[in-house]
Write a structure and sequence with these properties.
Blueprint: E1 5-11, H1 15-25, E2 33-39, H2 46-54, E3 58-62, H3 68-82, E4 87-91, H4 101-111, E5 122-123, E6 130-133, E7 135-139, E8 144-148, E9 151-152
Parallel strand pairs: 1-2, 1-4, 2-3
Antiparallel strand pairs: 5-6, 6-9, 7-8
């Protein structure tokens, strides 16, 4: 099965990063996904440029103001659910993805019905073999967040 994945990207005055992110998403091999680009009240021509350059590839929602990250994403998630999304991926606009990342994430999620959230390895932009993060563990009692990664990639987190 290929569940429908809605990828939500929030843009706020980040046209250069958002453009690079969208260009990388165009190379994704997973067959059933859509991209919802949320503009969170950017100044300048971000909306116009995104519409002109990616209008046939993205669903562009223009917020009337900057709602912040949480509400900006919530607006996108509500839209995705109305459109029939099976899965939602929140993706930072300063991300460049591997063409196989979504296929692998869906494969992991479908392998075990108890999995509710997946995350990929995140590499540093200028150090392609250095992991920035692979996940986090939250201690709800203390409010501590432990990040895994911050090391050279030797395959230690491969599934």
């Amino acid at each position: 099965m290929n569940p429908k994945v809605s990828i939500i990207i929030l843009n706020w005055n980040g046209l250069k990063d958002t453009t690079e992110c969208l260009e990388s998403l165009k190379k994704v091999t997973y067959p059933n996904y859509e991209v919802i680009a949320m503009d969170n009240g950017s100044q300048g021509s971000d909306v116009q440029v995104l519409q002109e350059k990616f209008g046939d590839y993205i669903h562009l929602i223009q917020n009337d103001k900057n709602y912040g990250f949480p509400e900006g994403c919530n607006i996108g998630m509500r839209y995705a659910l109305i459109r029939g999304a099976d899965c939602i991926l929140l993706l930072s606009n300063d991300t460049v993805v591997d063409s196989e990342f979504l296929t692998e994430m869906v494969k992991v999620a479908e392998a075990d019905s108890s999995i509710g959230i997946t995350r990929s390895k995140i590499y540093y932009y200028y150090e392609l073999n250095r992991i920035q993060a692979v996940g986090r563990k939250i201690n709800w009692w203390l409010g501590d967040i432990e990040t895994y990664g911050e090391e050279e990639d030797g395959g230690q987190y491969n599934m």
